[in-house]
């Protein structure tokens, strides 16, 4: 996420909007305090999706997915070793 001061945003608005259009989020600060975020616009739903929602066959997401999913935890063992250990415990 890019942080940018209001004064700087005024001078670089075009480049910031291009970054946001590319999927980035920009946090706007004033004297170092966050005051706003510019986020990518949500795409319009297709007519087919609108119909499925109206019919109750699809439930729209309540919030967008995080742009940066959490990193996997390092447990010190490989996934294969973990699965084999679980299998041994079940026997």
Helix content: 25-40%
Shape: flat
Report on the biggest sheet.
3 strands, mixed
DSSP summary: helix tally: 3
Give the beta-strand count: 3
Walk me through this protein's architecture:
This protein has helices at about 5-20, 45-55, 80-90, and strands at about 1-5, 25-30, 35-40. The protein has about 90 residues and is an alpha+beta fold. The chain is built from 3 helices and 3 strands; from the N terminus they run βαββαα. The protein starts with a strand and ends with a helix. The chain is flat, with a radius of gyration of 22 Å. It is about 40% helix and about 15% strand. The chain has a 3-stranded mixed sheet with strand order 1-2-3, covered by helices on one side.
